[in-house]
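Summary for the funding panel

The consortium committed to producing paired sequence-structure records for every protein in the target list. Below we show the first two records in order, beginning with the earlier of the two.
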Amino acid sequence: MLAALAAVNEGHVPSYGHDAYTSETRGRLEELFGDRSRVFFVFSGTGANVLALESLVSPFNSVICGETAHIYTSECGAAEKHIGCKLLPVPTSDGKIDRDGIARHLHRLGDDHHSQPGAVSITQATEYGTVYTPDEIALIASFAHEHGLRVHMDGARLANAAVSLGVPLRAITADAGVDVLTFGGTKNGLIAGEAVVFFDPDLAENFQYRRMQGMQLSSKMRFIAAQFDALLTDDLWKRSAAHANAMARALAEGIRALPGCSLTQLVQANEVFAILPREHIAALQDACYFHIWNESISEARFVTSFDTTQEDIDSFLESAREILGG
């Protein structure tokens, strides 16, 4: 990424994305996702999610999502503040929602006292590190479309999901019926940069103005484009995601063997969820910081990345064995 940034840090080009670097990289992504796709670069994942959803719904609409969804739990109400819409959570034990969960919110349609469902948002890979199959996504999209709902995908870890499933990116997006995607760059190695990808060109018609009004238009956009270009070169996106996933599996195997520890979710991408002995959590966090996901059951969340090493894993597990007496 740093080399890619340095390579475009010479000379002068037109600003705000009207340069060859941005145009060529946008074209590479649109080829990857399909001929009907339209790609727009932005700064942040939260900004991408808000603007993508704003393209699908009005302030009087609601968005159906999992109760663990990042847009619901971790973006400080950004969608609700900036769009004015309501988020309707669906209970989920593994981060994945289904038709029944969506259907429970399809009531009081046409009632002017009630927010009207306008979209479904799913996360791939989910906040629990689990992965929707292409068929599961297609089923959700078909059901949503039958009821007049659009489908948004928060793809912050889309690369990890695609590698886990062994499928192309478009197999779990455009080909499965997703309408708009937030394609994560930062969580797969970019220093800063995300993309909003539309699979229905009509939905993208006014997005250039929405992006500017939403304060997500970069004057020096070639620096975002260059990073995505590097990510696409020689399948770096795939190699980085595959490595992160492999490190998560190695970490999970080690944690499973620790005394008093147990995994709570399938390890399908690059996240590991485990219950740890409450009295040892502080000491374990000193050995390697991790996030406590659910305080009530001492459930911890570990995330591996493109630069996690086997030595990192081994060092933490060794410290954990000493702390836990295993």
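The next record, for a separate protein in the list, is shown here:
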Amino acid sequence: METNFIFKSTQTQVSPFNFIWGMTKNPLETLTTFAKTYGDITHIQMPRRNFYFVNHPDFIEEALVKQQSNFVKGPALQRARIILGEGLLTSEGVEHLAQRRALQPAFQRHKMEEYLPLMNENTFCHMAKWEHGSVVDMAEEMMRLTLNIALWSFFGNAPQDSVERVGDAMKTLIRTFPLAHIPLSDEMRYLFPNFRKAKADLFRVTEALVDNPTQTENVKRSLIHILKENNKNQFTEAQIHAHALTFLLAGHETTALLLAWCWDMLAHHPHAQTRLQNEVNEVLGNRFPTSEDIQKLTYTNSVVKETLRMRPPAWAMGRQAIKNCMLGKQEIKANDVVMMSQWVMHHDARFYDAPLQFRPERWLLNPKHNLPRYAYFPFGGGNRVCIGEHFAMTEAVAVLAMIARKWKATPMNKNMSIPKPSVTLRPHAGVKVLIEKI
């Protein structure tokens, strides 16, 4: 493919009403329309600050990497502190860097050799409950599976009823997510009873995980052990709870959605599913995957990468300027917000042939060498790139391989699931498939 890296015009301003109405009604379509109609930088002048939606890899790289010290997380995520506390996702500056360095050992590549058996065992046990010829919702199934994997990997155990309690709390938080966009005081948000209950349930589960006295080998190798070991030197009790909650939620939800979208794609593209199954049978046979196998499953990896392109769980992100700077020829003033969308960028025809088509093969020749770095950024970038990127990729490939070698999925609906953007990109009505043993 010959990639065209030209810029589009950058001097268009959108009214606040059109922006708010569009983002409320259909944010994916709205941002896509902005990029196609107005160019690589769309200016939205809001009452308190300017918003700039940028849609070119160079501008995204400027905001996330080259000028990352000029920006902090966007307003919506800043308001998420009411739920997540001062954890890795919400902290900034020197504090964030110190926390990340302390937590990094839990996500180094060699740690995958410890996590992978837990991923395999949990997947095997989860599949054992399935029945040939039954209809399942892969969105729900993958959510339960990845939550169990997160509990065992990060905390060394799964307390009784924790999966159900976290799942129920997550559903409530998703419904109340619009509260994060409304500039209310924390006290006002607590007036919503469902919000209070969801937060209380999550706190109780996290407290049980943090205070667990068990000292099995799994616990000693887990994230919670790293947190407790650093308690006297760095982390307060409140920060330990914040980190535990952050990894409990972020450590399973986005990967669950990625896997659900993978099965939606595979069920509607049977040739891709067959090719994936053939690769898994050739590489694994009847074995559980090892770390070496994960690298050999090249087509399976390509399915995951292509799904991340077409259905990125993190579909948009924002950065707020803390001082005046420039993106290209556009001045960004302190307090202005720069928005970027993985969804829009990953569907840009300037950088991808047939961007609306599911083509895992596009990744087999490693075309990222022909792409600007930030034409593809499912895990973000810069010093705030997702710390769990390698964990998530390993888990997604392992789970897909484990399931695909035993089960075939056929879609129950003619069309693929409709993406519903909320905190993350979720399937509107789940991913219903007929599963059959092979």
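Regarding this second record: DSSP finds 19 helices and 13 strands in the chain. Residues 80-313+360-437 form a domain with the Cytochrome p450 fold (CATH 1.10.630.10).
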